[in-house]
Design brief:
Structural class: alpha+beta
CATH topology of the largest domain: Jelly Rolls
Strand order of the largest sheet: 6-5-8-3-2-1-9
Number of helices: 4
CATH class of the largest domain: Mainly Beta
CATH superfamily of the largest domain: Protein of unknown function DUF192
Number of strands: 9
CATH architecture of the largest domain: Sandwich
Order of helices and strands: HHEEHEEEEEEHE
Length: 164
């Protein structure tokens, strides 16, 4: 009986020791959260133009996402976005696009812009963490993400132009 009890205790001890070592190995193997994030540099101005196209209504300071890695990351895991900051996604082709909010904790306005830099679709106040596809319905080569409410606050509408 003592022998069986000793074997059981030894087995339990090995299981717990193995689990903590596995967890430790995993933590050491994966990069920290800070290392995984792409640093955002809001140095690319995007000007939203009046309906006439002559005047700038407002300027948004954006971080640029112009490669696959940056476009995939987008604003995921960003918990605080200053009011006049956002992200500009640049694609090689003008074609219908789809975006989603997976791993994005902030509600956003998502603005689809075609090659002529005309806004073709705006999604207002998107739902954080949603996996629903938000599609442009029309060809778009650029996408701009802002804090939710930005487009309403600044009277930005479909059909208006942008400059950058």
């Amino acid at each position: 009986m003592k022998y069986q009890l000793t074997l059981i205790l030894a087995g339990i001890l090995l299981i717990f020791t193995g689990c903590s070592e596995s967890k430790q190995d995993t933590q050491q193997a994966s990069p920290s959260e800070e290392e995984q994030k792409i640093p955002l540099d809001f140095n690319r101005p995007v000007h939203f133009l009046s309906s006439s196209g002559n005047d700038t209504l407002v300027t948004l300071h954006t971080a640029l996402a112009d490669n696959d890695r940056e476009r995939s990351q987008g604003l995921m895991d960003i918990n605080n976005l200053p009011e006049d900051n956002g992200m500009l996604f640049i694609f090689e082709e003008n074609k219908p696009r789809g975006f989603w909010m997976a791993n994005t904790p902030l509600p956003l306005d998502i603005i689809f812009v075609n090659t002529e830099k005309v806004i073709v679709r705006i999604y207002h106040n998107t739902k954080p963490y949603s996996k629903d596809s938000l599609t442009s319905d029309k060809p778009a080569q650029y996408v701009i993400e802002t804090n939710a409410g930005y487009t309403v606050t600044h009277d930005i509408r479909e059909g208006m132009s942008v400059a950058f």
